[in-house]
Amino acid sequence: MKYTKFIVVEGINGSGKSTICNYILKLLNKLHIYNVIKIHEPGSTPVAEKLRNIIKFSTGEIFSYKTELLLIYAARLQLLDNIIRPNINKNWILSDRYDLSTYAYQIGGRGLNKNHVIFLQKFINNNIRPNITIYLDVNPVIALQRIDSNLEDRIEKESINFFSKVRCFYIKMAKKDKTIKMVNANKNLKDVKFSVKNIINKLINI
């Protein structure tokens, strides 16, 4: 297949994004699509991974929401310049999180000014949009039960109220954008995979 697609999987922590990304990769391989670059945000480049570690695990000092936002966009710029832009026209790209996460978490969850986020998006010249975003919608209570409390990062330690606000913003965005496909991730994994498979099949016109 000569064409390529940019697929993003979104959802709150504990929604099953990593599992579904791995599943999508296997689906594409079964369809003889092997030129797939699997990435995650923040991260996926050496510099971006260091920024990811700061974002997720830094403690011991006041960590402002604006600092978090700037670090996220610094990591995204590294990812755009080193992986996405050089490959978008010759490889499939499968990403665990992308722009939608920033909107949901930073605007919906943190309550930051939308205009600041839009400014940063323009500043890093991020005009690359996914062909499709699969949003795994799950009740925050269920999602957080799936996370090992001994392995929680700084974000995963946020309150149920925080994740409820993030989820509401995801749903709001999904209703506005036809490229965002919402999947009920409260269901068992078999049902979630079935829904995702149908979305991927439609994407590649099977």
Count of DSSP-assigned helices? 8
User: How many angstroms separate the termini?
Assistant: 13 Å
Q: What is the CA-atom radius of gyration, in angstroms? A: 16 Å
What portion of residues belong to β-strands? 5-15%
> How many β-strand runs?
5
Overall structural class, as computed from helix and strand content, comes to alpha/beta
Which topology does CATH recognise?
A: Rossmann fold
Question: How would you state the average pLDDT, rounded?
Answer: 94
What low-confidence regions span 5 or more consecutive residues with pLDDT below 50? none
**CATH architecture annotation name:** 3-Layer(aba) Sandwich
One letter per element, helices H and strands E, the order comes to EHEHHEHHEHHEH
The biggest beta sheet, please?
5 strands, parallel
What fraction, in percent, of the residue positions are helical? Answer: 40-55%
Which CATH class? Alpha Beta
What is the CATH superfamily label? P-loop containing nucleotide triphosphate hydrolases
The number of domains: 1
How are the strands of the largest sheet arranged? 2-3-1-4-5
- What overall form do the CA principal axes indicate? globular
Describe the structure.
This protein is an alpha/beta fold. The chain has one domain: P-loop containing nucleotide triphosphate hydrolases (Rossmann fold, 3-Layer(aba) Sandwich), CATH 3.40.50. 52% of the residues lie in helices and 13% in strands. The protein is built from eight helices and five strands. It has helices at 17-30, 46-57, 65-87, 99-109, 114-123, 140-145, 160-176, 189-203; strands spanning 6-10, 36-40, 92-96, 132-137, 180-184. It has a five-stranded parallel β-sheet, sandwiched between helices. Helix 2 packs antiparallel against helix 3 (65-87) and helix 4 (99-109) crosses helix 7 (160-176). The chain is globular, with a radius of gyration of 16 Å.
